[in-house]
């Protein structure tokens, strides 16, 4: 990685890979925690609860709490960590099988045991973290898929009609992997999403998101440049035509600056489905641009969560992107001080870095 890259508008040197990893994971968690209290609320409901400007800051929350969105993102990290441990020991591992086993361990924490037909993998460090076992509005689609005890795939989908945004939000870690070709990042994300979400649109959205993270982290690109590159790759995939259209609209809207919320939903959707959530989060990152990284983070997250759709996921996606871009310097200290789960997130980031740096 080039250590002299200058993130556009930051005025500071490249934050470096470790800071980008921590920034991405912590940023995703912060976005999840800001959006989680309103993830089932309409825009009007959010305004009635938090005022005309909606929910904009951790200071408006009674208590900051992670949801299953952050839990599953960290279990994705753990699956990649296990595959890296095998690889660094000289043994090849099936990354998608590692993902499935990790998600089954998360399921066991949520439901009190493994599905009857599923294997029972041995516990790992993450499974001893009580916060990551607590039931925090887990994805119903993911629970239902894992409950079958079968390993979903693109060829043999489980939940064939499911296209919720949670499979996207948990996919940021794929983009963090160093020394991995872009096509492998896409494959890992596609196969990881297919474990629980059968709709191709959901799988392609997860792949596009992880690709955005990969370009931000490993090429040092600005968000608009990363989005342009990922859009070009997405347009070349016939199965991703709908997603490509939403990403193009998000780029156009975001580069014009903030627009009325009704225009966002009219162009990008409510943010409930996977491609909608990714488009809304990307729009928020672009439209919320500010010269100060932390102000950019605050403004973008406010745009991302004040929607009709899945605010937990849109917040997490936007926070992950900006954390990947700025590193830890982009995260508001007062949000981190009020946040839940920073020890667990930093713990997983440290374990991941131990296997990838050096």
UniProtKB/TrEMBL annotation:
Its cofactor is Mg(2+). InterPro entries: ADP-ribosylglycohydrolase (IPR050792), Ribosyl_crysJ1 (IPR005502), Ribosyl_crysJ1_sf (IPR036705). One of its GO terms (molecular function) is metal ion binding. Binds 2 magnesium ions per subunit. Pfam families: ADP_ribosyl_GH. Keywords: Hydrolase, Magnesium, Metal-binding. Gene3D superfamilies: ADP-ribosylation/Crystallin J1. It comes from the Bacteria. Mg(2+) binds at residues 67, 310. This is ADP-ribosylglycohydrolase. It comes from Arthrobacter crystallopoietes BAB-32.
């Amino acid at each position: 990685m080039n250590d002299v890259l200058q993130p556009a508008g930051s005025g500071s040197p490249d934050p470096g890979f470790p800071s980008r990893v921590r920034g991405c994971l912590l940023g995703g968690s912060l976005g999840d925690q800001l959006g989680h209290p309103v993830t089932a609320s309409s825009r009007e409901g959010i305004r009635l609860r938090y005022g005309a400007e909606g929910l904009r800051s951790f200071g408006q929350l009674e208590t900051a709490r992670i949801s299953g969105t952050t839990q599953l993102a960290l279990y994705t990290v753990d699956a990649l960590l296990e595959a890296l441990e095998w690889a660094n020991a000289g043994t090849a591992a099936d990354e998608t099988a590692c993902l499935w086993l990790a998600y089954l361990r998360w399921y066991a924490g949520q439901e009190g045991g493994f599905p009857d037909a599923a294997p029972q993998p041995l516990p790992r460090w993450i499974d001893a973290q009580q916060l990551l076992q607590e039931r925090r509005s887990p994805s119903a689609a993911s629970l239902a898929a894992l409950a079958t005890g079968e390993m979903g795939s693109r060829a043999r989908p489980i939940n064939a009609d499911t296209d919720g945004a949670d499979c996207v939000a948990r996919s940021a870690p794929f983009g963090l992997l160093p020394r991995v070709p872009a096509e492998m990042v896409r494959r890992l994300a596609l196969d990881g999403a297919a474990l629980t979400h059968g709709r191709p649109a959901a799988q392609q959205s997860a792949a596009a998101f992880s690709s955005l993270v990969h370009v931000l982290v490993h090429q040092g690109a600005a968000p608009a440049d990363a989005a342009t590159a990922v859009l070009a790759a997405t347009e070349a995939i016939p199965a991703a035509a709908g997603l490509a259209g939403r990403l193009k609209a998000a780029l156009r809207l975001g580069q014009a600056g903030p627009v009325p919320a009704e225009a966002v939903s009219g162009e990008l959707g409510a943010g409930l489905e996977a491609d909608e959530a990714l488009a809304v989060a990307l729009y928020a990152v672009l439209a919320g641009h500010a010269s100060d990284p932390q102000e950019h983070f605050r403004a973008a997250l406010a745009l991302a969560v004040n929607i009709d759709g899945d605010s937990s996921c849109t917040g997490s996606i936007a926070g992950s992107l900006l954390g990947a871009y700025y590193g830890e310097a982009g995260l508001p200290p007062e949000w981190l001080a009020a946040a839940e789960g920073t020890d667990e997130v930093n713990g997983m980031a440290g374990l991941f870095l131990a296997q990838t740096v050096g």
